[in-house]
Amino acid sequence: MGLKRSWLDSANSPTTPFPLNNLPYGVFSVGDGDLRCGVAIGDRVVDATGLEAAGALRADPLADVLDAPYWNDFMELGQAAWARYRSALSALLAEGADDATQDLIITHSVKLSEATLHMPFRVSEFTDFYASRDHATNVGTMFRGPENALPPNWLHMPIGYNGRASSVVVSGTDIRRPWGQLKGPDEDRSRFAPSERFDFELELGAIVGTSSNGPLSVAEAYDNIFGYVLLNDWSARDIQAWEYQPLGPFQAKATATTISPWIVTGAALEPFRRDAPAREVALLGHLKDAGPMLYDIALEVTLAPQGKAATTITRTNAKTLYYSAAQQLAHHTSSGCPMRAGDLLGSGTISGPNRENRGALLELSWGGTDPIALETGEKRNFLEDCDTVTLSGAAQGDGYQIGFGDCTGTVQPALNKPFG
Ligand code: MN
User: How far is the CA of 97 from the centre of ligand 1 (A)?
Assistant: First the structure.
């Protein structure tokens, strides 16, 4: 299937991230105006809140669900409603729509360049996983040596930890370098200081759309996922190295997690589903593959020192993951853990087999021992103040792409004094 043509010319470009095939959901404002639910198409944002209020496009015939600055109430309507809404909105935007329809959409839309983008949903909870075999192998090799690279449980189940919903911010939000407790292997005493090894992590975030209260099969879990965002799990490696045993990362990951502003729906990504790799250890029944549930999404990271050109430092692909978001969600619910609309699941850092495919500076600089060279002539082991990190991603179709919109953040210097 190729490009779905729209009467809006900007949506028909092979390089727009937002063709009619995509229709990602976000939240926007213009000037001092209210926050409104919006859908990106070409170079415009359709005002979904306005269309609902006008009675022109309703997600639920009985209640307003888009009169709030988030898509959670819409998610709660469930899969059938998601499909109906997407299909009705597609019809309004598709080539051949009559003049009255085009006028209606132009009235209820603004230029993307005039819109300020906000968090697209309320994050109920945030869990982060560890699903890239290359990433887990690299980190394990650095910490434990090549013989013990993969933890013994890694090929049996998705490994994760419970993160902080309160720390998730939208692309463009400045990130303050954290203070934390540090102790290097050669230091006698711990000390409280700004992180010296602050890092990014290139991840894909899955957003649970359907609440559940008990174990889900992998196939059910797949259907419960509403959509995906790019996700940067900012990580203080020196805080992490000292605190992580035995309960895993805590303050190292609590400063901030940045997500891209548009929720790309599972529906838009359907043509890009890919099989998981061969299983070296057969997965137990509740985690068994139930069809292709990874996605072919090309991913990239750039790093720009303050006021200077950006260098692309990573290129990889979400199809290289070992566990799908559906398997992570099935595993998450297997204990009976309830899930809510707006639950965010991070894939874990996505790395590939080669150096240029590594999704974090920890791996790119091999633990800070082999700095990467930027096109500006500078080098980096870890992030410096005022560095801007930008994640981007797109699934490439035949004559169109499904883009995510950038996930960007700039590191601000640590506070002079962390208290008072
Ligand atoms: Mn992570």
Answer: 44
Torsion angles phi and psi, residue 195, rounded to 5: -60, 135
152: its two tokens: 């013994």
pLDDT tens digits for range 279-337 = 999 999 999 999 999 999 999 999 999 999 999 999 999 999 999 999 999 999 999 99
- Taking the centre of ligand 1 as the mean of its atom positions, its distance from the CA of residue 201, in whole angstroms, is 6
**173-198: per-residue pLDDT in tens?**
999 999 999 998 899 999 999 999 99
- Alpha carbon 204 to its chain centroid, in Å, reads 4
Enzyme catalytic residues? 135
Q: What gap in Å lies between CA 92 and CA 81, rounded to an integer?
A: 17
Residues with CB under 5 A from ligand 1 (ion): 128, 201, 233
Rounded to the nearest whole angstrom, what is the distance from the C-alpha of residue 42 to the centroid of ligand 1?
31
Distances (CA, A) of 360 to 40, 281, 303, 339, 387: 29, 27, 11, 29, 14
Q: What is the CA radius of gyration of the chain?
A: 21
Distances (CA, A) of 343 to 5, 130, 207, 258: 33, 17, 6, 15
Rounded to the nearest angstrom, the distance between the alpha carbon of 231 and the centre of ligand 1 is: 9
Q: How far is the CA of 204 from the centre of ligand 1 (A)?
A: 10
90 contact partners, CB below 8 Å, separation of at least 6: 4, 20, 23
Percentage of the chain lying above the pLDDT 90 cut: 97
What does the pLDDT average to over 194-203?
A: 98
List b or e across 72-92, with b for residues whose CB sees 16 or more CB atoms inside 10 angstroms.
Answer: bbbbbbbeebbeebbeebbeb
Residue 232 pairs with which residues in a beta bridge? Answer: 202, 258
Q: Are 329 and 221 in contact (CB under 8 A)?
A: yes
| Mean pLDDT of the region 81-97 | 98
Per-residue DSSP letter, 369? T
CB of 326 within 8 A of CB of 291? no
φ, ψ of residue 69 to 5 degrees: the values are -85, 45
The token duo for 375 is: 């096109």
| Cα–Cα–Cα angle for 20, 23, 26, rounded to 5 degrees | 150
